[in-house]
Amino acid sequence: MGYLTAKQLSEKWEITERRIIKLCNENRINGAIKNGMVWLIPEDTIKPYDKRNKVSKYINTQKKVMIINFNNEIGHCLLPQLQKEGYIVETDKTFEEMDKYYENLIFIDIDNKTIKNKEEIIVEFAKKMNAESAIVLVNNDKKAKEKLEEKLGSTLRNEIGLRINALNITAPVEKDSLLDYNEIASDILGLITKFKNTTGISIETDGGYLALDRKERTKPLEIGEFYRAIIRCFKTLNKESYMWCASTMLEDEWTEEPLEMNFRVNNLEAANRGANLERIFIFSKSKIKEFRENKTLRIYMQSNVKTMFVDYDEIKEKEPKLLQIVGDGWDGIDKTTLIVDMPAGSEKRGYISKNKKEVQKAYDCFQSLKKYAKDLKEVLK
What is the pLDDT of residue 265? Predict the structure, then answer.
């Protein structure tokens, strides 16, 4: 598939270049992407209806979605994903407030709210949809037993032609649970966009759930589980986030393995989004010459991550307890989460802690280490 500029498309559609740019800015041309100051538009895209034309009053030309029970983690993660795909999203409107036409309905029922007459709501809402529309029910494990998608699927398919499918979340959906809500949102979007000819089915996901024990820690995690959990945490970082990290397993962390490379990329992306990232590298002064041309350190130093050096031998002499707390290193996020490396030679890679005392102890340790820290760029120059 090729792309055309607004100027090239204006000749094809016989409308002005200015009009096409306006349509792109309003997200009314499917697949249009902005490359710097230039809009690139798929050459086979369909010309949108002109809203000024009276015909458009009788034709649903918008990708409009209603989300019922929006105000939860799933809804907030789903919103930007839908908007990125060009959907116009409405949330929790009454029937009196709703528009005439909708392309999709997403019914989130995961927080133990009693939503009365759920079946009647879906049936009534279906009257605002057409044969290319889709309904997605999002349930937790208990709610999934109702299987409304099976009960209503054939009826809505036969009477209207629309699809109704369900995403059943098999893990507990709790405020502080370690769920990947972006992953769940992606599955919901997939049920809308990819299951074009399917109705009455259920797919299940655990959302990457990790259980916390009585000490508010996960179990020691395998390598894949550990990195997946880290990346999930990184993707939540924003301009209000503070990430503080102490690294001691330097040789182990500087491999070219895909998992470790992806870990570094997500560090840098979080910093580029505006998150405040600080990393302390703890090693002996005797290794400065060895590390001066190290590729990984050079990447970090050229990024938006604040990189610092702390002399291992100085800490060992003055405050050895700090080294005991650091262990083999950890990444802290705000004062809520600690991602801990297991000792070298362990069968497992690490664990995640939400234990307030453990997180605070590590945080205080990091602030104490900063008293000894020097700018890594100055040390390695």
Answer: 87
**Alpha-carbon 118 to chain mean position:** 29
Which pLDDT score, from 0 to 100, does residue 366 have?
Answer: 97
Q: Which residues contact 136 (CB under 8 A, 6 or more apart)?
A: 104, 105, 106, 107, 164, 165, 166, 167, 188, 191, 192
The whole-angstrom separation of Cα 280 and Cα 295 is 17
pLDDT of residue 180: 84
Listed by start position, the domains of the chain span 3-53, 60-205, 223-380
Q: pLDDT at position 27, please?
A: 83
Fold annotation for 60-205: Rossmann fold (3.40.50)
CATH number of this structure's domain 223-380: 3.30.870.10
Q: Which positions ≥6 away from 109 have C-beta within 8 Å?
A: 69, 115, 118, 137, 138, 139, 140, 143
3-state helix, strand, coil in the chain (%, to 5): 40, 20, 40
pTM: 0.66
Helices of type H across 273-311: 288-291, 295-301
Separation between Cα atoms, residue 332 and residue 324, nearest integer Å: 16
Give the single-character DSSP code of 218. Answer: P
Segments of the chain scoring below 50 in pLDDT: 55-56, 58
